């Protein structure tokens, strides 16, 4: 899987541009503020229908523009391709099209164009709230377990109903019992999918991390969100009064977490910035391997400022792992010399110079028009 063509209009400081990227390694270099990250943001918008730099989409739209548009031609395999498009205007309207058909769910975009992002904010996966780690976990489960999305939607509906009842007491006894049962069933199903996924992810992650870093005593574990020795139905029944006081459900898969520890301590508190970056990279590369096994195509990697926090040896090791994925990678950096070498001779590498929002190809097999 790869983006064979990408067109971007009205995104931040980028000039309207159409790229024909390499199916493997694409390096975008230029000064800070030139627009490199904005191109990664445009690809992310195409696959996720949202930005990774802002909770709101309005800042993504270029000044004096009423809307932004991203179009991509995705090569699914040797014989199949798919056309994706997304546009957003300042009024808040979002339009998503796949192969000429309008769609309402961003999940269809994510399924067609799986993306992995590694950027300076990736440290938050270790340092941030459990919600970020649940999102990381569920992204992987979504792409390898087709039944996950339906179970997750059932969970969200049951949680909304139960939490509304806890706050307002508007459900009769029969409805309360029905929604509590639905919540328990959906939760147990989601927990099963997550546990199965972690069992598959953990050995791949450990092998990947060993290539990048020696961390004796590093542990990855999964907390499902309630006592592992009890069914959720029993936990919900026992905590009903506390839940009423709090106004929402305290136990369940919405409280799940990935726990990353070093010699028994929180990894974020003991590892250096460079080590944290390599741990996050190992997690995301391991996810890519599982997606490749589950689907006929691979996900696309967006790596912002790859050389940051890494010495030459670790930088080369990370590039080698990305190369071994045999997937499409977009990498940004300031100094192109740091990433120009180190790739195999048979790996297609395209170099793009970004300056004042204009992108020009300077090396590689692909063409660029801007």
Write up this protein:
It is a single chain. The protein has twelve helices and 16 strands. The protein has 370 residues and is α+β, with helices and mostly antiparallel strands. The chain has a domain at 1-109 and 330-370: Rossmann fold, CATH 3.40.50.300. The longest helix is centred in the middle third of the chain and has 40 residues, at 173-212. The chain is globular and about 70 Å long. 36% of the residues are buried.
**Biggest β-sheet strands, sense, barrel:** 7 strands, antiparallel
Quickly count the helices: 12
Helix content: 40-55%
Strand order of the largest sheet: 7-6-5-4-1-2-16
Q: Secondary-structure element order, as H and E?
A: EEEHEEEEHEHHHHEHHEEHHEHEHEEE
- Low-confidence stretches are 364-370
Broad CATH class of the domain at 1-109 and 330-370: Alpha Beta
Structural class by sheet pairing and helices: alpha+beta
> In percent terms, what proportion of residues is strand?
15-25%
Termini separation: 24 Å
CATH superfamily of the domain at 1-109 and 330-370: P-loop containing nucleotide triphosphate hydrolases
Compute the average pLDDT: 87
- Beta-strand segment tally: 16
Oligomer category? single chain
CATH architecture name of the domain at 1-109 and 330-370: 3-Layer(aba) Sandwich
Domain RecF/RecN/SMC N-terminal: 3-358
GO biological process, one term: SOS response
Family: Belongs to the RecF family.
Subcellular location: Cytoplasm
């Amino acid at each position: 899987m790869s983006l064979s063509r990408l067109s971007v209009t009205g995104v931040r400081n980028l000039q309207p541009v159409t790229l024909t990227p390499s199916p493997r390694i694409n390096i975008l270099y230029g000064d800070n503020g030139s627009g490199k990250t904005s191109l990664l943001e445009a690809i992310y918008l195409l696959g996720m229908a949202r930005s990774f730099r802002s909770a709101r989409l309005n800042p993504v739209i270029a000044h004096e523009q009423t809307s932004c548009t991203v179009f991509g031609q995705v090569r699914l395999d040797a014989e199949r391709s798919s056309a994706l498009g997304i546009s957003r205007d300042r009024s808040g309207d979002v339009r998503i099209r796949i192969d000429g058909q309008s769609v309402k769910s961003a999940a269809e975009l994510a399924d067609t164009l799986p993306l992995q992002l590694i950027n300076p904010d990736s440290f938050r996966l270790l340092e941030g709230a459990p919600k970020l780690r649940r999102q990381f976990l569920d992204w992987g489960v979504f792409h390898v377990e087709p039944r996950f999305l339906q179970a997750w939607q059932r969970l969200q509906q049951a949680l909304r109903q139960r939490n509304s009842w806890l706050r307002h007491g508007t459900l009769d006894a029969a409805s309360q019992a029905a929604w509590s049962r639905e919540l328990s069933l959906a939760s147990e199903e989601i927990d099963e999918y997550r546990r199965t996924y972690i069992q598959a992810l953990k050995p791949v992650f450990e092998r990947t991390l060993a290539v990048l870093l020696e961390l004796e005593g590093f542990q990855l574990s999964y907390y499902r969100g309630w006592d592992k020795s009890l069914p959720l139905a029993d936990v919900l029944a026992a905590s009903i009064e506390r839940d009423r006081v709090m106004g929402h459900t305290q136990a369940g898969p919405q409280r799940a977490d990935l726990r990353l520890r070093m010699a028994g301590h929180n990894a974020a508190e003991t590892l250096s910035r460079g080590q944290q970056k390599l741990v996050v990279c190992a997690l995301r590369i391991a996810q890519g391997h599982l997606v490749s096994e589950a689907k006929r195509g691979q996900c696309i990697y967006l790596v912002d400022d790859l050389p940051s926090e890494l010495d030459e040896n670790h930088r080369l090791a990370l590039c080698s792992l990305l190369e071994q994925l045999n997937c499409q990678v977009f990498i940004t950096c300031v100094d192109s010399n740091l990433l120009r070498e180190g790739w195999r001779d048979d790996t297609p590498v395209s170099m793009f110079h970004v300056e004042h929002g204009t992108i020009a190809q300077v090396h590689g097999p692909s063409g660029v028009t801007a």
